[in-house]
Amino acid sequence: MTTHTYSTSPRAIIASHNQKISQNRAVQPLTVDLADQSIIKELNGKRPLGLDLATKKYRLCYQDDFGRMINVELRKNELRKMLRETPGKYHLCIEGCSGASYWERFAIENGHKVKVVPGYVTRKLGWNQPKDDFNDAYNLYNALFNPLVPSCQTRTEDELAISALISQKEALLKSLNEQVNKTRSFLIETGEYDCVVKGGGSAVQAIELYISNHIHAASEHKRSIRCLEGFKRMILSLTREIDEINETLSEYGQTNKQVKLLLTIPGVGIETAVPIAIGAKNIERFESARQFQAYWGYHPTHGGSGGEIEMGKMSSNGDRALKRTLYESALSLNHQGRYKDEPRSEWIYTKVTQNKAAFKKGMIVIGAKILRTAYGVLKTGMPYNPAIDNSLGRIKTKIHKRSNPKYKEQNINAVLQNKYEKELTLAALG
């Protein structure tokens, strides 16, 4: 019996097989007719390119002068050289992933046109194809000729830096809460129940009080003092870094028009306004306030069958930091009218009383209203006016079409201003 020996390893055999398949797929059937002048007009006379981004190697799909589909692999420097040496020649389609903002800016600086599409486009257009760089570049090329494919926004360098600072702040707050909880636990275990630890400042005061009370017996408590001093240094360091980030966010908010508009909404601070302004830079791409709310994941999930819909918990999508700040904003609005004869607004009072058994649910409803109000402020470009939307304000002056038959004939702004002044006059006299 003879045995056959193979000089090539199985890995090399598989690699050669994949290479043959790639060569056979190098020429794809034509999906675009070059004689169709409407396509050239739609692309402004620029040659379309599908560019699949990666870390080192990029995949480029285009159609040559003979009508053949070419799918090649490029390095980073080769792609830069190609875009730099042929200014204003290409119309690129890029997937909205890591690096899309940089390559969009680089291509536009060299005169090219760029369309950035969401990441699910490559999966939807290539649902019956394997998910690889070859097919992704080909699907991105075809996405240029599909008018139903949406585009997603990218960010400038300043916006990327602010977003990174917000993420860094969330990590610092998590670490700060961890150190504060450890300090509280250690003081309770040592019998210091009189020390109230609720935050970073109270934790530092409790540590200093412990050290001052046990300074006469430092030899007996030296390890405890050493541990608490370490907690103190960590808390002070984290607090200082968080304050520096807050100063940077405040400086950014002073120069951003959208942030200034959002700050006019009751309960909205700089921590809430900055993420909304960066994430909703192009407010025109949202068709309604509900869609804007769903974009941030601030909506309940639902399911069911047979015509019966069951509402679930809040969606896990969106920005977790913004959800936290919106919840805190709702708490502040509810707290402002808690010990007064008149609440902050009748709408907030109604939502809180309706959800007495589920207090958090009421706060989530108020936070969702803040998001929808932010959409209206950004859409109109006007600051918050309690005479138009009294849900978060104090004055209840809202005109409905049913109660005003001359709604279309009169100037609505003048009508609102007159009713607003009358309410102020009656309040002053009463």
Give the overall silhouette.
globular
Query: How would you spell out the order of helices and strands?
Result: HHEEEHEHEHHHHHHHHEEHHHH
| % residues in beta strands | 5-15%
Number of E strands: 7
Low-pLDDT parts are 1-7, 24-42, 394-410
Helix amount: 40-55%
Q: Number of helix segments?
A: 16
Computed CA radius of gyration, to the nearest angstrom? 30 Å
Class computed from helices, strands and strand pairing: alpha/beta
**Average residue-wise pLDDT:** 78
What is the terminal separation in angstroms?
112 Å
> Order of strands across the biggest sheet?
3-2-1-4-5
Largest beta-sheet details:
5 strands, mixed
Molecular structure report:
This protein has 16 helices and 7 strands. Helix content is 53%, strand content 9%. The longest helix has 33 residues, at 157-189. It has 430 residues and is α/β, with parallel strands linked by helices.
Concise structural overview:
The protein has 430 residues and is an alpha/beta fold. It has 16 helices and seven strands.
Topology:
Elements: H1 10-24, H2 37-42, E1 47-52, E2 57-63, E3 69-75, H3 76-85, E4 90-95, H4 100-109, E5 113-117, H5 120-125, H6 133-143, H7 157-189, H8 200-213, H9 222-254, H10 257-262, H11 270-279, H12 289-295, E6 300-303, E7 310-314, H13 320-336, H14 346-354, H15 359-380, H16 412-429
Parallel strand pairs: 1-4, 4-5
Antiparallel strand pairs: 1-2, 2-3, 6-7
Helix pairs in contact: 7-8, 7-9, 8-9, 9-11, 11-13, 12-15, 13-15, 14-15
Summarize this structure as a short list of keywords or feature phrases.
single chain; 430 residues; alpha/beta; five-stranded mixed beta sheet; two-stranded antiparallel sheet; 53% helix; globular
